[in-house]
Amino acid sequence: MLLSVKDLKIHYQSPRGTVQAVDGISFDVPEGKVVGVVGESGCGKTTAVRALTRVMPSVAKFAGGEVLFDGKDLLSLSESQMNALRWRDISYIPQSAMNALDPVWRVGDQIIEVLVKRGGMKKPAARTRAEELFAMVGLERKRLRDYPHQFSGGMRQRASIALALALNPRLVIADEPVTALDVIIQRQVLDTFLRLQRETGISVVMVTHDISVVAYVCDYVVVMYAGKVVEKGPVRDVLTQPSHAYTIGLYNAFPELSEDAARELSPIEGGPPLLLNPPTGCRFRARCPFALPVCAQEPPEVQVGAGHTAMCHRAHEAEALRAAARDPKIWQGVVTQ
Ligand SMILES: Nc1ncnc2c1ncn2[C@@H]1O[C@H](COP(=O)(O)OP(=O)(O)OP(=O)(O)O)[C@@H](O)[C@H]1O
Questions:
Q1: What domain count does the chain have?
Q2: Is any atom of ligand 1 closer than 6 Å to the C-beta of 39?
Q3: What's the start-to-end Cα distance of the chain, in Å?
Q4: pTM for the structure as a whole
Q5: For residue 220, what are the β-bridge partners?
Q6: Residue 225, ligand 1, Cβ within 6 A
């Protein structure tokens, strides 16, 4: 396994107390596969994946667990050992390309800088590699001379993909890489990214709040809710047989990216709980149309298929719940807290 996250806990110290943003999550990223981390805003996705690069705000604290990359625990490496892995083994594509690209530098120079400083390349070879990278992501070579503001949003995101792939890393972490783009451009950028992922065989962890993006690009999916993993498994199994009410709800709330499905969409009312004082038991229960008194107790991790688990007291009844969940009315007026 290229990456194994085991019982990872990350807390933020805030003036109001400790925010348990990531509360004991575990998942694996196999070599050459794309793993989606999905969930609503505030569920801890960004915190969880930024931990994989160890680039964290100073108020964030690792409160337990391991992040095994190729068998080594990244959390026990020194800063210089970790720095040696960044770009070369693990690279990061942030939510907005404006965070990856420096506005006052030409885009080409930024790529060359990474190739020279991080990859030890000579300038002429780096220039050739930058041209090759631009061609790979579908940008014209002459645009290497442009500044980021001269690019459209889609072009900037392509450039930040080129930057992330510059040194042939083994793992790319992409945080909502297409969210800021309109749907047609999203599709084009995702297609380019997927083609490159298949050609290079890199592993990818992709954060998204959009289950249709997961369906389109991922091999495996990890569904996060309120700092916990509530369901995970091979993408086809999780999307055709979602077994946690939250995953069922997410699926019902999103249109397909890949087809003009005429499915009736129904939002999950309310929002995730604050992670200062998370509720006991199943954290989704206040928004769940299927909650029972037992849901106030910690849910078990139920194996529902090969490599497919759901943290739900009712996971064994998932087929009936999926059928009931198709009625949009069942999602209305549920929120109890
Ligand atoms: N610097 C911080 N200080 C305190 N709390 C924080 C900080 N950053 C994030 N949080 C809290 O941690 C929790 C998880 O946030 P995180 O950004 O990881 O979620 P997310 O699922 O990635 O959301 P989004 O999609 O909006 O980025 C949230 O409750 C958030 O308010």
A1: 1
A2: yes
A3: 41
A4: 0.93
A5: 35, 234
A6: no
